[in-house]
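Q: Given only this backbone (311 positions), what sequence would you predict?
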């Protein structure tokens, strides 16, 4: 009799655990659907792709402006405010923003003295260029490749789209964790790690590479509209490949397409971009001055100069 009672108790406890897991899964699925459905649906300019973003344009702009202030405050001694390079960064940025599908961003363009070969644009149109990339850009059209790409990220709202993808992935991880409650901790940790790696390699990284490619394509159109020859993008990415320290990581494990893939895609998109370029330069509708042709050099870091002087 006691054995029967214990068996019934174990069985009921098992049913209760299954019911709890089922309820948790239902809640998580409902939450994922809530996140997806409340996300704003947008159409990306140029490519026409339909996307969903986690935040409104107003919220994106607010967060972008706050992050921009914080980053610039941390880099205050490295900000280059005057000189031909800083002037050119603002000139190129304003020229491209003028012909982009601008929803009304308060654009800002800042040059930061750093050997880093990088640039970024926060939601709402806050752009920073690290001076290390100037030697790769070499001239105004090379700089236009960089800045048009970053401006394209902001226009396409890639930051808010990535945020939604990451939120949904986290909900998926919680759902998997809920179904593994009966496993021992070591096995459970292994399965969760495998699922996380799968989500990273199979979802998040490919998604990031797609956004980079989309920004490349949109950037070609924007620089062409601004009167910059989009063919300059091929030379820029060839120089980026040559400037790389060490071997390039496998594309499947990277947030960015390989330089080889980028160049191949750019060649594929060039005919469309060249049409825009000819419209801008031959019809005279944009009334833009020609590129200045300034040979760019990386700006010197102020405190590095002081250190060398004192030594």
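A: Predicted residues:
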């Amino acid at each position: 009799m006691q054995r029967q009672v214990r068996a019934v108790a174990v069985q009921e406890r098992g049913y209760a655990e299954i019911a709890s897991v089922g309820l948790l899964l239902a809640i998580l699925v409902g939450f994922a659907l809530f996140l997806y459905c409340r996300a704003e649906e947008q159409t990306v300019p140029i490519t026409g792709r339909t996307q969903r973003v986690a935040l409104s344009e107003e919220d994106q702009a607010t967060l972008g402006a706050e992050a921009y202030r914080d980053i610039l405050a941390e880099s205050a001694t490295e900000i280059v405010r005057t000189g031909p390079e800083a002037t050119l960064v603002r000139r190129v940025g304003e020229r491209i923003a003028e012909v982009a599908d601008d929803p009304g961003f308060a654009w800002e363009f800042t040059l930061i003295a750093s050997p880093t070969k990088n640039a970024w644009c926060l939601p709402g149109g806050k752009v920073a260029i690290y001076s290390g990339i100037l030697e790769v850009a070499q001239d105004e059209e090379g700089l236009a490749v960089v800045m048009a790409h970053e401006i394209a990220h902001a226009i396409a709202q890639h930051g808010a789209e990535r945020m939604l993808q990451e939120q949904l992935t986290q909900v998926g991880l919680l759902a998997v964790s809920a179904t593994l409650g009966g496993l021992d901790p070591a096995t459970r940790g292994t399965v969760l790690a495998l699922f996380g790696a799968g989500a990273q390699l199979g979802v998040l990284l490919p998604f990031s590479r797609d956004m980079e490619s989309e920004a490349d394509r949109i950037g070609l159109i924007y620089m062409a509209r601004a009167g910059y020859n989009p063919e300059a993008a091929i030379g820029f990415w060839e120089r980026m490949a040559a400037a790389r320290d060490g071997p390039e990581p496998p594309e499947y494990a990277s947030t960015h397409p390989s330089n080889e893939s980028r160049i191949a895609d750019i060649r594929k998109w060039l005919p469309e971009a060249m049409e825009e370029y000819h419209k801008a330069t031959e019809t005279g509708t944009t009334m833009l001055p020609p590129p200045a042709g300034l040979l760019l050099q990386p700006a010197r870091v102020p405190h590095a100069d002081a250190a060398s002087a004192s030594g």
